[in-house]
Design brief:
Helix content: 25-40%
Number of strands: 8
Number of domains: 1
Length: 210
């Protein structure tokens, strides 16, 4: 395995909330971390994979094909909310559930309505995140992580984004939108997956990323 040399990470997203989380979790890697926009990359990506890993790789490959920097690692994620009572919906279609332009307040209200009358023990759910990497030599990596919880009865909390206000984490007794940034990054699906990816990159680097 050749030593991995790179000076920046480009993450295939334009989501400001997601980039804030990513920068906090990868801060110890001592690399410049850029969004697609910051890297000057604009590309339409069709996410038509059958699982989170496939969609993440589709995005990472598309951005890698447009990246000018030969010393960049391209990262991309795909994540979703899986509700057991709804047979895993919305799953890989979480971002497109009810339409991409539909607000999450409307999406969250719809999911709560669909679980109307469902007892707490049957409201189990999880956030799942897969992160893929395309390395400068063309090698590809992927990891997956999840956080288990339940769907609440109403939106709570003003932190986070997306489905966070309805995802209740029993160990904290709060939704992920009520957690502090540090708490969320420690237990979230994306936080766990990013830390797994850091470990994978370390193996290629032959360093401790410090």
């Amino acid at each position: 395995m050749s030593e991995l040399k790179y000076d920046k990470i480009i993450f295939a997203t334009g989501n400001a909330g997601k980039m804030k989380e990513i920068r906090m979790i990868l801060a110890d890697m001592s690399r410049e971390i850029l969004s697609m926009k910051e890297a000057g990359i604009a590309v339409d990506i069709r996410e038509d994979g059958d699982c989170y890993e496939e969609n993440a790789l589709i995005k990472a490959r598309a951005v890698a094909a447009c990246a000018q920097a030969e010393s960049a690692v391209i990262l991309a994620d795909d994540s979703g909310l899986e509700i057991d009572y709804l047979q895993g919906e919305p799953g890989i279609y979480s971002a497109r559930y009810m339409g991409e332009e539909t607000s999450y307040r409307v999406k969250n209200a719809n999911l709560i309505e669909r679980l109307s009358g469902v007892p707490e023990e049957a409201r189990t759910a999880r956030f799942v995140c897969a992160i893929a990497a395309v390395l400068p030599d063309g090698s590809e990596l992927s990891v997956r992580a999840a956080i288990e919880g339940r769907i609440g009865y109403e939106e709570k909390g003003s932190h986070g984004f997306g489905y966070d206000p309805i995802f209740y984490v029993p160990e904290f007794g709060r939704t992920t939108a009520e957690l502090t940034e540090a708490e969320k990054n420690q237990v979230s699906h994306r936080g766990k997956a990013l830390r797994l990816m850091k470990e994978e990159l370390k193996r290629y680097e032959g360093t401790d990323c410090q």
